[in-house]
Specification:
Blueprint (H helix, E strand, L loop, with lengths): L9 E2 L5 H10 L1 H8 L12 H13 L9 H4 L2 H4 L5 H13 L1 H23 L10 E7 L2 E2 L8 E2 L5 E3 L2 E6 L6 E7 L10 H14 L8 E5 L6 H9 L5 E6 L3 H9 L6 E4 L5 E9 L14 E7 L16 E7 L6 H9 L3 H14 L7 H25 L9 H9 L3 E6 L2 E6 L6 H12 L5
Parallel strand pairs: 2-8, 8-9
Antiparallel strand pairs: 1-14, 2-6, 3-5, 4-5, 6-7, 9-13, 10-11, 11-12, 12-13, 14-15
Helix pairs in contact: 1-13, 1-15, 2-3, 2-7, 3-13, 6-13, 7-13, 8-9, 12-13
C-alpha cells in the first residue's frame, strides 16, 4: 500500500458536525459568546465564547489538554476560525484571574442551553414523567506533578477530590453533569458543606419549573445530619434517597425485624431477586435528631461467592441502609431507585474519558475552568444523543460515539455557495450519522 498526503477536500472527525449543530440548536454557542463578551480585548479577532465552545468540542472528541484544539484549527471548513494556542492560553489565564465572574457566566450559558435542550427533547427529557433525579458523588483525580491544592487523598494517592452532580436520563439514556466542583485532594467524602454546595450548583442548572420536583441521591457520604437537614429545611424541600452508614443501633434494630417483615428485593429489571430482601426499620430507631418524616430502609442479601464478610454483616448476610423521605411506594421499588444511583459511577467514568482523568493546568482556578470545559463537553455529547440519536445509540458511551460517529472521515464538495459533506458510503454508521445531523438541522436555532 502506497501512502501519500495529497488528498484534497478530505476532512477527519466529520461527525463532529453534530456537536456544532447541537450548540446551534441549544443556543449554547450564542450564550457563551454573550456571557464572555467582557473578556474580549479591543480589536480581538477571536470571540472568547467561541474559543471556550471550541475547547469543549475538542474535549468531546477525545482531547485532554488545551493544545488539542489544534484538531479543529486544521479544519476551518467544519469548525470555522479557531484561536491559536497562545490566544487560548491567554484567555484561560484571563478567565482564571476573574474566576467567580467567569464561572458564573459559563454556568449561566450552560443552564440556558440545558433548558432549551430539554424543551426540544420533549418526552425524552428528564423530569417528563416523574421527578428529576440528581446524583451526587465525589471522585479522585490523580495529579502526577505539583499543582495548586493537589494533596494526598484518602485512597493514598495524590491529586484532587472534586464533588460532582449528575442529572440521570434513566434507562433509555445516559446522563449529564450539573456540577463539577473542584476540591483539594484531602477534602472529605462526607463533608456536608461540599454536598450542599454541589446540590445548590445542580439546582441552579435545572429549569425553574422542575426545581420543585427533584430527588437527590447520594451514597453514605451524604448521610449526615447537616446535609439532610439542609435538604429538608429549604423553603421548597428536596426529596432525597441517601445512603447511611450502619451504626450499632441499626444493627440492633435489624436483629429485631421479624422474618415476615422482610420482603423480596428487585433486580434491575424490576423482578424479585433471589437471595435479597428489604425491610423498613424506621420504627425501631430513635430518629429524633434527624429530619421529620425520614425513613430508614435496609437491604439484606447473601454475599456473592468469594466475598469476604465484614463486621457489620449479620448472620452471614450483607446489609446496606439508606434514608428517604418518600411516603409512598413499595419498599422494593424505593430500594431499586436508590440502587440505581450506581449509574452515577458510569457517568464519572465517562467524564474521565472526556477530559476529567487529568487536570492539565497548574493553577486551582485554571483547573476549575477546565472542569467547566469538561462539563460542557459531556453536555454536548448528552444533548446530541438526546436530540439526534435514537435506540441503542442514545446509550453509547463517549468512546463508542467517537469511534462510530465522530471519527468518520468525509469529503467536502462545494456547489455554488453551498458545501456538501460526503461520508463514506459503506461506513456502517453513515446512515445513522446523516439522519442525526438532519434531525438537528431541522431544529430552529436557540
Amino acid at each position: 500500500m502506497a501512502v501519500s498526503a495529497d488528498g484534497r477536500g478530505l476532512v477527519s472527525q466529520a461527525g463532529a458536525v453534530l456537536l456544532w449543530e447541537t450548540m446551534r440548536a441549544t443556543g449554547l454557542a450564542r450564550g457563551l459568546s454573550q456571557g464572555l463578551a467582557r473578556w474580549r480585548a479591543p480589536r480581538a479577532v477571536h470571540d472568547p465564547g467561541k474559543t471556550v465552545a471550541d475547547l469543549a468540542a475538542a474535549v468531546a472528541l477525545g482531547g485532554d489538554c488545551l493544545a488539542d484544539i489544534a484538531v479543529l484549527r486544521e479544519q476551518p471548513q467544519l469548525a470555522g476560525p479557531v484561536a491559536s494556542d497562545p490566544v487560548v492560553s491567554r484567555l484561560v489565564t484571563a478567565l482564571a484571574a476573574d474566576a467567580p465572574r467567569a464561572l458564573k457566566a459559563i454556568r449561566a450559558a450552560r443552564a440556558a442551553a440545558r433548558e432549551r435542550a430539554w424543551a426540544l427533547a420533549g418526552e425524552a427529557a428528564p423530569g417528563t414523567d416523574g421527578p428529576v433525579i440528581v446524583d451526587l458523588d465525589a471522585t479522585i483525580v490523580i495529579a502526577h506533578s505539583e499543582k495548586e491544592h493537589a494533596a494526598p487523598t484518602w485512597k493514598k494517592t495524590f491529586g484532587f477530590h472534586p464533588m460532582t452532580a449528575w442529572a440521570d436520563h434513566g434507562e433509555d439514556g445516559n446522563g449529564e453533569p450539573l456540577a463539577i466542583a473542584l476540591r483539594a485532594g484531602n477534602a472529605g467524602s462526607n463533608t456536608a458543606a461540599d454536598h450542599v454546595e454541589a446540590a445548590g450548583l445542580a439546582l441552579a442548572q435545572l429549569p425553574r419549573r422542575l426545581r420543585g420536583r427533584v430527588v437527590i441521591r447520594a451514597d453514605s457520604g451524604g448521610g449526615t445530619h447537616e446535609f439532610l437537614a439542609w435538604l429538608a429545611g429549604r423553603s421548597r424541600p428536596l426529596h432525597y434517597s441517601v445512603g447511611m452508614t450502619l451504626t450499632e443501633d441499626m444493627q440492633a434494630a435489624i436483629l429485631k425485624v421479624p422474618a415476615p417483615s422482610w420482603t423480596p428485593a428487585y433486580d434491575g429489571d424490576g423482578r424479585a431477586r433471589d437471595g435479597a430482601w428489604v425491610a423498613d426499620i424506621t420504627g425501631l430507631l430513635d430518629l429524633s435528631s434527624w429530619p421529620a418524616g425520614m425513613r430508614v430502609i435496609v437491604r439484606k442479601e447473601r454475599p456473592h461467592p468469594g466475598a469476604q464478610l465484614r463486621f457489620t454483616d449479620i448472620d452471614g448476610h450483607r446489609f446496606t441502609a439508606f434514608a428517604t423521605d418518600a411516603k409512598r411506594g413499595q419498599l422494593a421499588d424505593l430500594e431499586l431507585r436508590h440502587r440505581r444511583r450506581a449509574r452515577c459511577e458510569d457517568r464519572i467514568r465517562c467524564a474521565k474519558d472526556t477530559g476529567l482523568r487529568n487536570l492539565p493546568l497548574h493553577g486551582f482556578a485554571q483547573n476549575q475552568l477546565w472542569c467547566e470545559i469538561v462539563a460542557l463537553a459531556c453536555e454536548l455529547i448528552a444533548w446530541t444523543q438526546l436530540l439526534a440519536l435514537a435506540g441503542d445509540a442514545r446509550r453509547w458511551e463517549p468512546k463508542r460515539l467517537r469511534l462510530r460517529i465522530f471519527a468518520v472521515a468525509g469529503r467536502l464538495a462545494s456547489s455554488g455557495r453551498r458545501l456538501r459533506l460526503r461520508l463514506a458510503e459503506h461506513w456502517p454508521w453513515a446512515g445513522e450519522t446523516t439522519a442525526a445531523i438532519a434531525r438537528l438541522q431541522a431544529l430552529p436555532a436557540g
